[in-house]
Specification:
The protein is an alpha+beta fold. The protein has a single domain (3-107), classed as HIT-like (HIT family, subunit A), CATH 3.30.428.10. 21% of the residues lie in helices and 21% in strands. The chain has two helices and five strands, in the order αβββαββ. The chain has helices at residues 7-12, 60-78; strands at 22-23, 27-31, 41-45, 82-86, 101-107. It has a five-stranded antiparallel β-sheet with strand order 1-2-3-5-4, with helices on one face. The model has no long low-confidence stretch (mean pLDDT 94).
Length: 117
């Protein structure tokens, strides 16, 4: 897929409207279009990288900032007790959109969602 066709690149450029939960210079967070639980959201890089291995290390602080700030907002809004952070790299690992992104999934005890269980 070319960057021009990438849905996350189009969202990053404002070509597709989105509700941003959080944003810094390198990443933004939006609700997932197909959430597995209420509050399921995505942290997406503003620049196109196919997967985590292509990201330069110097964006690490911005990534951690986006994860922490977004998760704090989601936990408070959804009264969640915890969260999962997931990142799929390549089709074999379940990556659907070939643009690096991280899933934040708010969790509560007994919510029925199975993760690595």
């Amino acid at each position: 897929m070319k960057k021009e066709e990438c849905i996350f690149c189009k969202i990053a450029k404002g070509e597709i409207p989105s509700i941003k939960i959080y944003e810094n210079k390198s990443f933004f967070a939006i609700p997932d279009a197909h959430p597995v639980v209420p509050g399921h959201s995505l942290i997406i890089s503003k620049k196109h990288f196919d997967n985590t291995l292509e990201m330069p290390a110097n964006v690490g602080n911005d990534l951690l900032d986006a994860i922490k700030k977004t998760t704090e907002k989601l936990l408070e809004k959804h009264k969640s007790e915890g969260f999962n952070l997931a990142n799929n790299n390549s089709e074999a690992a379940g990556q659907v959109v070939k643009h690096v992104h991280f899933h934040i999934i708010p969790r509560n005890k007994g919510d029925g969602l199975k993760f690595f269980a």
